[in-house]
Specification:
- The protein contains 9 helices and no strands.
- By secondary structure, the protein is an all-alpha fold.
- It has one domain.
- Helix 1 packs antiparallel against helix 9, helix 2 packs antiparallel against helix 3 and helix 6 packs across helix 7.
- The longest helix has 36 residues.
- The two termini are 29 Å apart.
Length: 243
């Protein structure tokens, strides 16, 4: 009767195959998770404070003061991150009783919230998968090297992607800005009058600085991770073929 018991070499090869798959997951997940974390940092009142109070930031031609922007803009961010429906914004009024947002703006904000929550929901799922993969690889000395290289390759991929995107954004902001909106939103639903509240609160310069901030934070995060992962030598690390 033939012996059907798998050999140690077979088990080692199988473990190596799974470890490589998990390494690939970490490599691909790293850029997405890092960028989403940086986006979340930008979606805070602190970033609004820094941008609106920056010398040279364009004034609102229709009368919003810096304090007005700091009062109204956080409400738009809060809507994108909370569980409320569009009435959260449609019920907002200026001191004179006029609605803060028109129907076109409300429709766009509803679309933005959908994209935002889908993206953050995906980040949670991918984050759980990546953390599980990292913990699995870290528990066995034979697979720790795959954890290290997954993080190294992921940070390298992030640097390459972010640098390329920042170059495109700086060289031709209009193409980048238009292309981004066309990717996620229908037709011209994201175009507004300069007198609309969304443009007065978030002029194009705001988005330019937000994009550069997200890119800069991502580069810093990926660079530090690359350096740390490059210096990390897992204890007891052995190559699968030497186990």
């Amino acid at each position: 009767m033939a012996d059907t018991t798998a050999s140690p070499t077979h088990h080692t090869a199988l473990a190596s195959r799974y470890a490589r798959l998990l390494q690939g997951l970490l490599t691909l997940a790293f850029p997405f998770l890092l960028v989403m974390a940086c986006i979340r940092l930008v979606m805070t009142p602190l970033f609004l404070q820094l941008v609106y109070n920056r010398p040279g930031f364009p004034d609102d031609l229709y009368g919003f003061t810096t304090q007005d922007r700091l009062t109204y803009a956080p409400l738009a961010l809060e809507y994108l991150l909370n569980g409320a429906d569009i009435t959260f914004l449609s019920n907002l009024r200026f001191p004179d009783g006029k609605a803060m947002y028109n129907e076109r703006e409300l429709r766009h904000m509803r679309d933005v919230k959908q994209v935002t929550q889908l993206a953050f929901g995906a980040a949670v799922i991918v984050g759980v998968m990546a953390l599980s993969a990292a913990l699995f690889l870290a528990t066995d000395r034979r697979t720790r090297r795959y954890l290290r290289f997954g993080v190294l390759y992921g940070s390298s991929l992030t640097l390459a992607l972010i640098v390329a995107i920042v170059i495109v954004a700086v060289v031709n902001w209009n193409v980048f800005f238009t292309g981004f909106h066309q990717l996620f939103f229908e037709g011209g639903t994201w175009r507004f009058e300069y007198s609309d509240t969304l443009i007065r609160l978030f002029p194009e310069q705001f988005w330019f600085e937000a994009a550069l901030t997200i890119g800069g934070l991502s580069v810093i995060g990926a660079g530090l991770t690359f350096l740390l992962a490059g210096r990390w030598q897992p204890k007891g690390d052995i190559r699968p073929d030497s186990a």
